[in-house]
Write a structure and sequence with these properties.
413 residues, alpha+beta, OB fold (Dihydrolipoamide Acetyltransferase, E2P), six-stranded mixed sheet, two-stranded antiparallel ribbon, 57% helix, globular
């Protein structure tokens, strides 16, 4: 208990120090601002709108023209300040908070895309982004809607081809996570790819090659927080094996979270990072308890889904305001298809780069799985009885919930 508290306060102190180096912007609501920068992650597309972020600034604009990860854009709009967190020391003045962090939304934005765009990005990053664009074009040509969106979502984490209707179905059924490129993607190809490299290199060199490929894939998928978290964890695990250190999942997760937050403290307020980090924590700490008791059987899809659901419940409720009680069962029914869709999607992409007709032929092998996945999600989205909507949840309840989960895990380890 003392060790846990010491680590918590030590990490909190480091976080406070790091936060002080975040640039403080003196902006007022309604002030006209122009921001120029490169999109560090793929814009979030929903229906006829897309949400873009450059640093602390966000803007929501029309679906078209489309913008993508790596584009250099200029946004002009009226600032709306959105305080994320303000923390004051006891008896201290509110004018001098210990932590004060804001994000800024640009209303009525006017966007201009740089003439350089993707062409201005060179090196490995430029190659990865161009490859991503080519793969998206292949999926769009080979598959009809909404199947093209499913394949691009599973393989690349891209959501630009997902319709608003199907997005809502994913949200209603608690299956949005299948559209996010994350640790599951890396886990599915890393071991096989390592075995391939071992045919040509010694183990140390093969691991280096694998880590390079993992980070190339992370860049190609848009460097979203879940993907970066997964890439960091897998890299630490494999590199730890080189120096003879056995990696424990919880420690690697904790170290990865520290590295990511230290490099970019804003991530701690990012919903994608929160869900990815907590879902992985659920797999590391909660799922083994289910397997240990064997009360829920040995089905890994069901126990992993339930563990992730328990770990992320408050975040889902706070940010989305709804929960589907059938979500673990729905995931049990559909998750087995994801490895095949991911692997076949990658194969179809490679074949499409060689000759589009080969991709057309190979696509017929994955059509049944895509149809099954789409129809299953559509069917359960119509069952509204188990879809519960929640009122606004206070931070106190969230803290109490995670304290209870932490105590339960401690008692059963």
């Amino acid at each position: 208990m003392r060790k846990t508290l010491f680590i918590f306060f030590a990490v909190f102190a480091i976080f406070l120090i790091r936060v002080q180096f975040i640039p403080k912007l003196d902006l007022k609501n309604g002030q006209l601002v122009r921001v120029t920068g490169v999109l560090a992650e793929e814009p979030q597309v929903l229906g006829n709108q897309q949400s873009l972020k450059i640093g602390q600034f966000a803007a929501i604009t029309k679906r078209y023209p489309e913008y993508h990860y790596g584009d250099q854009i200029e946004i002009t709009g009226e600032v709306e300040t959105k305080p994320i967190i303000t923390l004051n020391l006891p008896l201290s003045s509110s004018n001098y908070p210990l932590i004060s962090f804001n994000t800024y939304r640009l209303n009525q934005p006017e966007l201009k895309k740089s003439t350089t765009g993707i062409k201005g990005i060179t090196g490995i990053k430029g190659i990865a982004i161009n490859l991503r664009i080519k793969l998206l074009e292949i999926y769009k040509r080979v598959f009809p809607r909404p199947l093209d969106g499913i394949v691009s979502g599973v393989v690349l984490g891209d959501k630009s081809m997902i319709s608003q209707d199907f997005w809502q179905k994913l949200q209603q059924t608690g299956t949005l996570h299948i559209m996010v490129a994350s640790g599951m993607n890396i886990a599915m190809f890393s071991q096989g790819l390592l075995s391939f490299f071992l045919l040509f290199f010694k183990r140390r060199s093969a691991i280096y090659c694998l880590v390079i490929v993992i980070w190339f894939y992370s860049i190609m998928t848009g460097m979203a927080p879940p993907m970066v978290r997964a890439a960091c964890m897998v890299s630490l695990i494999y590199l730890g094996g080189i120096i003879g250190r056995e990696a424990e999942g919880g420690r690697v997760l904790f170290l990865t979270g520290l590295l990511m937050i230290f490099s970019n403290p804003v991530l701690i307020f990012d919903v994608g990072f929160q869900l990815s980090f907590l879902a992985t924590a659920g797999l590391v700490y909660i799922q083994p308890l289910f397997c240990k008791g064997k009360v829920l059987g040995n089905n890994s899809n069901f126990t992993s889904s339930l563990a992730a659901q328990i770990a992320t419940l408050p975040i889902l409720v706070v940010n989305f305001g709804q929960l589907n009680l059938l979500s673990p069962m729905i995931n049990l029914i559909i998750l087995w298809t994801i490895p095949f869709i991911l692997q076949m999607g990658m194969v179809i992409g490679v074949l499409g780069l060689l000759w589009i007709k080969l991709a057309d032929l190979a696509s017929y092998l994955v059509y049944p799985l895509l149809f099954f996945l789409e129809q299953t999600i559509t069917f359960f989205a119509k069952i509204t009885f188990f879809q519960i909507e929640f009122p606004k949840v206070s931070l106190v309840l969230v803290v109490l919930y995670y304290t209870g989960v932490w105590w339960w895990v401690r008692q059963n380890v």
